Amino acid sequence: MPDATPARATAREAIALLTGAAGFTEHRPSPSPLPPDGPLGWAGYDAARERASARTGEEESVVYGTGVVGDRACVLLSFEFGFLGGSLGRQTGDRLAAAYELALTRRLPLLALVATGGSRMQEGMVALTQLQRVAAASVRLRAAGLPQIAVVRDPTTGGGWATVGAGADVVLALPGAQVGFAGSRVRPPGADPYAYSAEGQFAAGQVDAVVPADELTATVTDWLRALGPHEELPAAPVPGALSAGGGEPGTGAGTGSGGGTGSGAGMEAGAGTGAGAATGSAAGTPSAAGAESVADRDPAAPLPETGREAVARARDPRRPRAEAYLADYFAVRLPLHGDRSGSTDPGLLCGFGLRADGQPVAYVAQCGTPTRPAGYRAAARTIRLADRLGIPVLTLVDTPGAANDAEAERAGAGAAIADTFAAIAAARIPVTTLVIGEGGSGGALALAAPGNTHVTVDSYFSVIAPELAAAILKRPPSETGATADQLRLRPQDLVDLGFARSIVG
Fold it and tell me: Between the CA of residue 2 and those of 23, 87, 168, what are the distances in Å?
């Protein structure tokens, strides 16, 4: 990049960083005429604009047009912070609105390179209302199924962050960038500066990734490939190969006792209790140490003979976890991070990926821990974005149950779970589910696709954990195994009951 740090690059340098030799074609709208010294008659405003133009070579604080990033065409808009702090006035709004309209008419994704101090005070309310114009233009792009990606540079604050930046479908940030609604001069005394940084916003689930400048072009290119726009896409393939007994529900496929000989020992002491009461060791993240890769699994593994054995196998730390399935499934993976409400759940992975054949698939994967409200909100966000863009979804179910501690209740566990159920119920795109471990009650069911759920041989699904069922029924611990059998939670039971379509080996 020419003589500039990436975060503080000029508008055109930022564009050149991404488009390179592919080039960029600038567009210029017909600007709205401004009265002398602007709509407020602010003394010296015209002179300030002239100085900013002489210093930067720009007529306004935004440059926009069409370009190619990697191998993907898009509409780019880039803020020039050197022009009055990248602030938004009426003519800035003209350019932003025109950029969104250009993306709409050409059916191209919008890539915004943001560096702004917010609304331009010399234009007062006329400047502030440009945020409403941007919001309306963004909504039209959303309705058209076109993706919006923002790269936030240093600094990105005020209304520009609260519309073009944070309002994008995917938010990437350059390291060390100042990012936040409150600019440095309007924060409370003693405010923690980390909260207003790219890294702090990532920790709070407001930014999807902090990307070094030398990785930005490749990362944005992958996101453009994944998000499209695309023609109609097929459903996400089920991970792994179907077992010999797999089949459609109601056929008896995948049933039979198998040759399992596991003792099922450890069901009472095993990780997780599920059914909305995920306690004990399940509250920690299952260790990946010693876990199998998907490729190492025995495709001829027998089905569990008993409910106790099914639960023990699902809780076995050696079985493959979500990370192994995703690594095997995707050639490229692009995580989304956080719930956009200030929280994250490290026990839930979500994002978009590209398979080896180039097919994009969105994913939501539980990692074997109790899923927290932030995880469900992130899941619903991912599913709705995929649905809007016409991209199929894969969910991997593996949780002993939803988190049930007081903090989870205060964070809105019930509402978050309800919203996840609603996101899948409303989805027009195909959703495919594979249960890879524990299916703990409603906390797991919220991520299961009705009519298109598959199960692995080392999984189970139950209305309630067997230990809790026995306790509720006032049965002694010695009867937990029999209770597990009564619950019919084995993979082959789930096929017989019509809940699962097939068993994956």
Answer: 16, 24, 28
- The C-alpha atoms of residue 482 and residue 52 are separated, in whole angstroms, by 78
**Cα angle vertex 112, ends 107, 117, to 5°?**
145
- List the structure tokens of 43: 């003394």
Give the residue carrying structure tokens 């179907």: 242
Residue type (1 letter), 53: S
Is 239:325 a contact under the CB 8 Å cutoff? yes
**Alpha-carbon separation of residue 243 from 253, 330, 451, 457 (angstroms):** 10, 21, 19, 9
Query: Would you put residue 443 in left (φ > 0), alpha (ψ -120 to 50) or beta?
Result: alpha
Instruction: Identify the helix (H) or strand (E) that includes residue 65.
Output: strand 62-69
Q: Are 113 and 355 in contact (CB under 8 A)?
A: no
User: Rg of the chain over CA atoms, in angstroms?
Assistant: 26
Backbone dihedral angles phi then psi of residue 332, each to the nearest 5 degrees: -135, 135
Q: 26 to each of 11, 78, 99, 247, 377, how far by Cα in Å? A: 12, 11, 10, 55, 38
Which residue segments constitute the domains of the chain, with CATH numbers given?
Answer: 6-227 (3.90.226.10), 322-504 (3.90.226.10)
**3-state secondary structure (DSSP) of residue 404:** coil
Strands 453-456 and 503-504: parallel
Number of H helices, E strands in the chain: 17, 16
Q: How many CA atoms lie within 13 A of 280 on its CB side?
A: 15
d(CA 252, CA 268): 30
CB 491, CB 254: distance < 8 Å = yes
| CA 76 remoteness from chain centre | 22
Mean pLDDT of each 10-residue bin along the chain, 505 residues long? 60 96 91 92 97 97 97 98 97 97 98 97 97 98 98 96 97 97 86 94 97 97 97 90 33 34 37 35 45 67 94 96 96 97 96 97 98 98 98 98 97 98 98 98 97 97 93 92 95 97 92
Q: How far is CA 82 from the centre of its chain?
A: 33
